[in-house]
Specification:
352 residues; alpha/beta; five-stranded mixed sheet; four-stranded mixed sheet; 13 strands
Length: 352
């Protein structure tokens, strides 16, 4: 028995927000003082570091569980399964359903329960729950689904990663330009077919690192101090990722005995182009090598950072041939890797 991704689906929002659309934003320093540079310089430097040219935001009438349902329907159709046969629905997100203009996230009932309801699944043995694991949530959901299947507790799982980060960002914080919305879903099944999940690795670092990503007040000190937004210590996260993600990736690859030369693609969380490139460089350096051309497909340039949705949407785009000069073929060995709030890191080695 092997455990494979047998279907995938995604929802990419239709509203495109370019860097130029931030030209009239009032960006402030943490102490509330204005930047000395004009927004054109701020966005130019931002693009040079992150690689983000534009991002996607959901329409005003959509929430996270809505776009997750759409992605899940596509994954179910792609896998050609009866949704009533699902044993688990694992929904990775971080902020729940946040309506346009709201100041609260809605997680009651769980978003997984909402998706199960939206899919009209009657089977009570289909267990639905949410996972709060930062940006690595979808990868961790796949790892948990793998454990359920290996233990005999499940044969078929739906794993979702979806987020509407545009609803929880401080418009006065230049980091808000990083974030975007999106949803990706996959069916994980026990199968007799060759390939599947070969190894996985996870870790949580909290002793010094727990609050590198956090909820904090707006940089605009005139706004309600009790309304909170996603905030981060970017430099600390960058240094943490470069130190810990390559190690986790190496441990994962070494545990399944596959030589790094056989690795065809690395699907890494689309957090920041320069950071992702540095992680890949350091990963290969651990083996005394340099990364081959094309090893790291990217979607961040047009889609931004949609947290838990970046890896499953990237995978879905690749298997459906939607990324130029990139492809996945049967038998390819690939790696999923992510880092995010917690601080959490994880990786999976997977054979197509």
């Amino acid at each position: 028995m092997n455990i494979k991704i047998t279907g995938s689906g995604s929802y990419i929002p239709t509203t495109i927000v370019a860097n130029s659309d931030f030209s009239k934003h009032e960006f402030l320093n943490e102490d509330g003082t204005p930047f000395a540079q004009p927004n054109e310089i701020i966005t130019e430097k931002f693009q040079g570091i992150t690689g983000i040219e534009e991002r996607r935001y959901v329409a005003d009438d959509l929430i996270t569980s809505d776009i997750a349902t759409i992605a899940s329907q596509k994954a179910i159709e792609n896998a050609n399964i009866d949704p009533e046969t699902l044993d688990y629905i694992i929904f990775a997100h971080n902020f729940g359903d946040v309506k346009k203009g709201a100041i609260q996230g809605d997680m009651l009932p769980s978003l997984a329960s909402k998706v199960k309801y939206n899919l009209r699944i009657k089977n009570p043995k289909c267990v639905a729950y949410d996972m709060l694991f930062g940006c690595p949530g979808w990868v961790e959901g796949v790892i948990q689904a793998t454990a359920f299947i290996k233990s005999g507790m499940a044969k078929k799982c739906l794993v979702i990663g979806a987020e509407t980060l545009s609803r929880v960002t401080d418009p006065h914080d230049r980091d808000s330009m990083i974030y975007s919305d999106g949803a990706g879903a996959t069916i994980i099944e026990a199968t007799e077919k060759d390939g599947g999940i070969l190894a996985h690795e996870s870790a949580t670092f909290t002793y010094d690192e727990a609050n590198y990503l956090f909820f904090g007040g707006s940089f605009n000190k005139n706004l309600d101090p009790d309304v909170r937004y996603i905030k981060m210590h970017g430099r600390k996260i960058y240094e943490f990722a470069l130190s810990n993600v390559p190690k986790a990736m190496k441990e994962c690859l070494d545990s399944c005995g596959i030589d790094i030369s056989n690795l065809k693609k690395i699907l890494i969380h689309q957090a920041n182009e320069k950071m992702d490139e540095a992680i890949i460089q350091r990963f290969y350096k651990l083996y005394g090598q340099t990364p081959p051309a094309g090893i790291m497909p990217m979607s961040i340039h047009k889609l931004g950072n949609s947290s838990v949705a970046t890896v499953p949407t990237l995978y879905d785009s690749l298997v459906k041939g939607e990324i130029e000069n990139q492809e996945l073929n049967k038998g390819d060995v690939i790696m999923f890797a992510s880092v995010g709030a917690g601080m959490n890191v994880n990786a999976i080695v997977y054979k197509m």
